């Protein structure tokens, strides 16, 4: 690949080539991601806040399609109605001027101390009532900006002192809150869908819905399960040591992948939100392969942030890197699909004993009786190697660039 270093803005040079993001890629970022100021539990901010309108402009120049927000990323929690309206007007103008959209919105129910024991699941009904009020106003803002997906991340919906809150009652409260807001959205005719985002822990010691699978089960208990799906995040599943692309596959198979958060994470650590594909290349490849082959057409949202070591220039290189890595891996997927040796092994794996397909699938009494009469030579069946070692090595070589 020959790079043409001609894309410039604000004194910086960015890579313009076949891997540069385009609007049709449907890449999005959050105001809180590129707007992250480098604060952590042990250190003060290392960067100044970036105005939302500049975030919109610069992301658009890098080829991004969308910008997402929590309510208070854009509008301070204590803004007056007049101040709120001016902020929203300026933001909408920036979106229009730079051909950007707001595909998703969400609410911050975790920063203010009032939510220290949860929004939906707090033992205090007054807190739960305020949480619903705040979310309804945030839904209104999202609808005003055109968002059709609304994400719920229960950042404080959990516990440290597990005897202080009945977990069964907490789950019921969460269900009541989601049901209430589903009805609110339908009543307002916003046409939104909800996506629930799991995380095993942090900032709480334990979360009530720690994995995507927990939420997929919970959704079926709602009054309107068709309206609600999931928003899996790479880092959150890796924190629990889980295989992310398997969780995404389950969400896809059940028709519940409404949104997805892309980043990276070292297994077993705190929530790191690294640049997409920066840690586990194979996992990132498998995820991109799954999304592309199963024709996922929803937003591809980068819920990550630049290292605390970076200034604002580093922030834009971080954003560029997320999108480029996805497109580089997308090209690797095409190489995988065209590699004759790889495809030959896959064809052999898929073509084993096709005559037995007639015994599988939908049950019938006749099929069951016929299957019970078959004598299987299980020792003979177990002797043949499956070729997975060779296949995995070929994938490694493709990823390392020598195929």
Instruction: Note the overall shape.
Output: globular
Task: Please tell me the total number of domains.
Answer: 2
Strand content: 5-15%
- Low-confidence stretches are 1-6
Distance between the termini: 15 Å
Largest beta sheet: strand ordering: 10-8-6-5-4-3-12-11
Question: What gyration radius follows from the Cα positions, in whole Å?
Answer: 24 Å
Give a description of the structure.
The chain has helices spanning 31-34, 52-61, 71-74, 81-97, 125-144, 167-188, 212-219, 234-239, 244-253, 281-293, 312-338, 340-350, 365-373, 378-383, 388-399; strands at 4-9, 12-16, 27-30, 66-70, 104-106, 149-153, 158-159, 193-197, 206-207, 228-230, 260-262, 300-302. It is globular. The strands form three sheets. It has an eight-stranded parallel β-sheet. Strands 1-2 form a two-stranded antiparallel sheet. It has a two-stranded antiparallel ribbon with strand order 7-9. It is α/β, with parallel strands linked by helices and 403 residues long. The protein has 15 helices and twelve strands.
């Amino acid at each position: 690949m020959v790079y043409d270093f001609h894309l410039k803005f604000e004194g910086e040079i960015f890579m313009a080539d076949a891997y540069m993001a385009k609007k049709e890629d449907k890449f999005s970022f959050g105001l809180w991601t590129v707007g992250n100021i480098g604060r952590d539990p042990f250190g003060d901010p290392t960067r100044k806040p970036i105005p939302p309108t500049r975030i919109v402009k610069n992301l658009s120049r890098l080829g991004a399609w969308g910008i997402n927000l929590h309510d208070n990323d854009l509008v301070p929690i204590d803004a007056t109605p007049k101040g709120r309206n001016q902020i929203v007007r300026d933001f909408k103008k920036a979106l229009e001027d730079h051909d950007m959209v707001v595909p998703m919105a969400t609410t911050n129910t975790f920063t203010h101390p009032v939510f220290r024991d949860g929004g939906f699941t707090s033992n205090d009904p007054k807190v739960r009532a305020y949480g619903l009020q705040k979310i309804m106003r945030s839904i209104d803002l999202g609808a005003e900006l055109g968002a059709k997906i609304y994400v719920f991340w229960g950042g404080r919906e959990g516990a440290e002192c597990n005897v202080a809150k009945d977990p069964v009652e907490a789950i019921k409260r969460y269900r009541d809150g989601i049901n209430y807001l589903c009805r609110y959205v339908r009543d307002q005719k916003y046409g939104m869908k909800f996506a629930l985002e799991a995380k095993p822990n942090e900032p709480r010691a334990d979360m009530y819905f720690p994995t995507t699978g927990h939420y997929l089960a919970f959704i079926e208990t709602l009054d309107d399960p068709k309206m609600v799906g999931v928003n899996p995040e790479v880092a959150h599943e890796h924190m629990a040591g889980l295989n992310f692309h398997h969780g995404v596959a389950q969400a896809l198979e059940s028709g519940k992948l409404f949104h997805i958060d892309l980043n990276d994470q070292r297994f077993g650590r705190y929530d790191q939100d690294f640049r997409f594909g920066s840690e586990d290349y194979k996992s990132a490849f498998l995820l991109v392969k799954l999304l592309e082959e199963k024709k996922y057409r929803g937003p591809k949202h980068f819920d990550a942030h630049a290292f605390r070591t970076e200034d604002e220039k580093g922030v834009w290189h971080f954003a560029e890197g997320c999108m480029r890595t996805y497109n580089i891996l997308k090209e690797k997927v095409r190489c995988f699909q065209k590699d004759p040796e790889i495809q030959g092994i896959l064809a052999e794996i898929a073509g084993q004993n096709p005559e037995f397909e007639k015994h599988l699938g939908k049950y019938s009494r006749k099929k069951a009786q016929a299957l019970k009469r078959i004598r299987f030579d299980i020792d003979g069946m177990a002797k043949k190697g499956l070729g997975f070692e060779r296949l995995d090595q070929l994938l490694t070589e493709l990823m390392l660039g020598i195929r």
